[in-house]
Amino acid sequence: MKSSITPVYKFIVLCLLLTGTTTLAHAQLSVGFRGGISYSGMSYRPTVAIPKKKVHGVKSKPVYGIAIEHYFKDHAGVELDIQYLTTGYVEYNDDETLSNETELDYLKIPLLSSFYFGRTGRFHIKMGPHFGYLLNATDVRREFESNNADLPILPTYGQPGDDPKKFMYGLTAGAGISKVFGKSTIVAEVRASYELGRPESQDRIFDMSVTNLEFTVSYLFQVMERK
């Protein structure tokens, strides 16, 4: 049986090859850590004939990981992150007395084009695709079910037999400011991402949309200077 993690492995290998190629070309290379908090949002369409319904996302969840930044020319480069991220939802019943909550923990890998303006004090924008792999699905709370079989609510994803899709993919864009201190750089930024995939694999609901906001600070140290 073919493992569902294979595309992620292939992507990581491709990124490492890209990193090695740019390094050999004497690009500026910085490596560091990135951490902060994230806020997710979710909406879903129970069936094709019913408009989308918005639910609460999970809030103030930690996001952290490794950042690798290459600048192969003035003011332009790429950034590869390998990070841990939690998304999910909180859905309430009609009178908001009961709720269901599910958290989805991912290994997320954004590969972003990066453009900056300024020298020691910089403004930057970043954009590109992201990919990831579901590490864990947890149904934190399940207090109610739908009273109408023709109007399903969001299902569980952490129970036996749920079998959520493991592979995530989507688009990420962000902006921020940074300050350079010699070989060190401190970066503060906000990123927004939209998921093109979804965890639902059994067609229990027709469609869902997942968004995420990340507020982070990074510390990067230059390990190779561009020549």
From TrEMBL:
Record key words, sorted: Signal
Q: Which residues form the Outer membrane protein beta-barrel domain?
A: 28-194
Q: Which domain of life is it from?
A: Bacteria
InterPro entries (alphabetical):
Beta-barrel_OMP_2, OMP/PagP_B-barrel
Short name of one Pfam family: OMP_b-brl_2
Record-linked SUPFAM superfamilies? OMPA-like
**Signal peptide per UniProt:** 1-27
Q: What is the recorded name of this protein? A: PorT family protein
Q: Which organism is it from?
A: Echinicola soli
